[in-house]
Design a protein that fits this description.
A: alpha/beta; Rossmann fold; 6-stranded parallel beta sheet; 20 strands; B: alpha+beta; 2 domains; 4 helices; about 25% helix; about 40% strand
């Protein structure tokens, strides 16, 4: 009898197949990409593997979608593009991920090895141009290196301070035969946190009369939400979060007081100004938080915990600096507060002082609840979508309003581009979030400027049947820039008025639902309609063109130069 | 020929120069990344040298900043994947090439903290910047011309 197995023709794997296998071995479920000449061999291999590819309509969207997926899940997001313009289109997405420490692996095709350096068709130095925006990058010139390099890329992306990693693969390397190399995953030895540092941090926290815990994105990246909550509760310490730390601590918790910084609550900025200890974890004292760094928290000692040692002392000099993963460090500090429940609550007067200072702000927000505008719109979304909703915001005034007024209580439910502030981020990022959590409500809150930057992805959303709901806060301006022009350029609205389509009809052109909402319309009913209509729906909220975000600390200034709303 | 005036003293900021040595694997791409990081983070690089070290590259930089900043920059660089090793080198040194007249300079070299030897009619002196300042001031009468190189880091292991 003929032994067909022995007679089977042996065919070595190609580089593309090795890439696909590496992705599978890394547990990748989704790739977001756009094919082209230099990545064609990879795309030819792809259908033979159980990897789900999402065809976007612009490579930037691929990077943002991978980013959104990574932020929502904590896993490494993957995007794919061809060489030349495909690769250059990824750059903004990579920079967005780099600034917010998001783990993604970007795979780019490249011209064949003999053509490199000859200004070949669609050749760009993608390694060179992404050097500042990637944690690391590889140009794989030996097919045998492809599999281990791909695996290594994932390790680098997710380890330590996460970030984007690029793998550039020449076309002929994708075609070339290669043996399946094994890969030995490097065993990441958890860093131990020095006991004296933890003890010193705990001692400072115990001694402080007006402490504040300042929690950033690192808490979410580390999965340290529980440890943060325990520490706050055991020490009775008020908690503030950075923009990216929002939803790391439930906003309906009595110890949560808000978020600080350029557009943060005035009461929170003042509390920081008065505090005698800032216990900062997983945040980097970004200039949007500190304003003038030399005037920031002038009376406070600082404990700074961050996984990246180079962040310690970069902006503010910590009294105690701890280079460690947030979860590990917080557990170490918690160990010093086992008996805190027996201690007298010495922070009660401090908390009462903050609460009293926040009363006027809360009254103002309460008073505006029924007025047509961002507060009412966001409350309606929260009420209708429920506590399981995840909100992806774009960049601008609406981003600040969402951060201030939505009231995030679910862990990791607030997704936004913080460090780079990338307009056009929200819609593609929401694709990644919705694919990660198909059974949970996902809302995009965007301005009419940013929404137009990547609205080609409505086609992708429609094709996938994603249940993303979009609220466009449409004021006919690049609103945040207009606000600055109003305050600092004598209302010279240079190139900030912006037009757009009729979004209701635009949605229909994509086969999606849409409605226009104006003052006087029933906001709650519109939101309910959007939520209950299957598939993607767009609500075009026409809002006050000159509504402003308050308060505002002008760039480079301090809390003492804060611009507040009239009557504040 | 009248002897030249003593060479100007090393600027006092030389005491704030912090040498860092790094061994970089990965060729030009890795060096590119290293340089981009120096530039991207606006590190105050006073001096930069790079050379081959076996199969790797060894880069030496002198950072003109306070010690805690230098440590922070070292921490940042040490996070680069291409680095095989990094160490904060201990000392900086200067090299001076002198054209001398007479022999009066020989005696003062002993005990000055400056090592000297002659090479093809040129006196080569090396030592820490402050020691070099002091010795050159002492031998000024015997120096016709001087070229000062550095400060540079005293070679270490690059953290390897």
């Amino acid at each position: 009898m003929e032994n067909t197995a022995l007679n089977a023709e042996y065919r070595p794997r190609t580089g593309s197949e090795a890439m696909c296998e590496a992705l599978l071995d890394e547990g990748v479920e989704y790739l977001f990409g756009y094919p082209g000449g230099a990545i064609m061999p990879f795309y030819d291999a792809l259908p033979d593997y159980p990897l789900k590819h999402v065809l976007v309509r612009h490579e930037q969207a691929a990077a943002h979608a991978a980013d959104g997926y990574a932020r929502a899940t904590g896993r490494v997001g993957v995007c794919v593009a061809t060489s030349g313009p495909g690769a250059t289109n990824l750059v903004t997405g990579l920079a967005t991920a780099q600034m917010d420490s998001v783990p993604i692996v970007a795979i780019t095709g490249q011209v064949g090895r003999p053509a490199l350096g000859k200004d070949s068709f669609q050749e760009t130095n993608v390694m060179g141009m992404t050097l500042p925006f990637t944690k690391h990058s590889f140009l794989v010139e030996d097919p045998e290196d492809l599999y281990p390099t791909m695996r290594r890329a994932f390790e680098i992306a997710r380890s330590g301070r996460p970030g984007p990693v690029l793998v550039d693969v020449p076309k002929d390397v994708q075609f070339a035969a290669c043996e399946h190399n094994g890969y030995r995953r490097l065993r990441e030895v958890p860093q131990s946190v020095a006991s004296p540092a933890l003890e010193a941090a705990a001692a400072l926290l115990r001694k402080a009369r007006r402490p504040i815990i300042l929690a950033g994105h690192g808490v979410t990246l580390s999965g340290a939400e529980m440890e943060l909550r325990l520490l706050a509760e055991r020490t009775g310490t008020p908690v503030v979060t950075t923009l990216l730390g929002i939803s790391a601590f439930p906003e309906d918790h009595p110890l949560y007081i808000g978020w600080p910084g350029m557009h943060g609550a005035a009461s929170v900025n003042r509390a920081i100004d008065k505090s005698d200890l800032l216990f900062a974890v997983g945040m980097r004292f970004d200039d949007r938080i500190t304003g003038a760094a030399h005037k920031f928290a002038p009376n406070a000692k600082i404990v700074h915990i961050d996984v990246d040692p180079s962040e310690l002392g970069k902006v503010v000099r910590p009294t105690v600096g701890i280079a460690a993963d947030a979860k590990r460090a917080l557990r170490g500090v918690l160990a010093h507060f086992e008996d805190a429940e027996d201690r007298e609550d010495t922070r009660a007067p401090w908390r009462a002082e903050i609460e009293k200072s926040q009363a006027p702000e809360k009254e103002r927000v309460e008073g505006a609840r029924d007025d047509y505008g961002p507060i009412r719109i966001l409350n309606a979304i929260k009420s209708v979508a429920g506590p399981e909703a995840r909100v992806v915001t774009d960049v601008g005034q609406h981003q600040m309003w969402a951060a201030k007024f939505f009231g995030f209580t679910k862990k990791n439910s607030h997704i936004t581009s913080g460090g780079l502030g990338t307009m056009g981020f929200a819609l593609p990022a929401a694709m990644g979030v919705a694919l990660a959590y198909p059974d949970e409500p996902v809302w995009v809150v965007a301005g009419d400027g940013g929404f137009q930057m990547n609205l080609q992805e409505l086609a992708t959303i429609r094709d996938l049947g994603l249940n993303i709901k979009v609220a466009v806060l449409n004021n006919g301006y690049l609103g945040m820039v207009r606000q600055w022009q109003q305050f600092f350029h004598n209302r010279r609205y240079s190139e900030t008025p912006i037009t757009g389509p009729d979004y209701e009809r635009f949605a229909a052109a994509y086969g999606l639902g849409g409605r226009t909402v104006r003052e006087g319309d029933d906001v709650e009913e519109a939101v309910k309609w959007a939520q209950e209509t299957p598939g993607c729906t767009i609500l075009d909220f026409h809002i006050d063109p000159e509504a402003n975000v308050y308060p505002m600390i002008p760039s480079g200034m301090s809390v003492h130069e804060m611009i507040e709303e009239d009557g504040a | 020929m009248a002897p030249r005036e003593a060479a100007p003293a090393t600027p006092t900021t030389s005491t704030a120069l912090h040498p860092i040595e790094a061994r970089i694997s990965g060729g030009m791409l890795a060096l590119n990344r290293f340089l981009m990081t120096l530039q991207n983070k606006r590190m105050p690089v006073a001096r930069f040298t790079v050379g081959r070290d076996g199969g790797a590259l060894r880069a030496t930089i002198l950072l003109d900043c306070p010690p805690d900043q230098a440590r922070r920059y070292a921490a940042l660089l040490s996070g680069l994947e291409d680095l095989e090793g990094l160490e904060e080198a201990g000392e900086t040194m200067e090299v001076a090439l002198l054209k001398t007249s007479g022999d009066g300079w020989r005696e003062s070299a002993t005990g000055s903290g400056v090592a000297v030897h002659e090479e093809g009619g040129t006196v080569v002196a090396s030592g820490e910047p402050e020691a070099m300042d002091a010795w050159l001031a002492l031998v000024g009468d015997y120096v016709q011309d001087v070229v000062r190189l550095g400060p540079v880091a005293r070679p270490g292991n690059g953290g390897g």
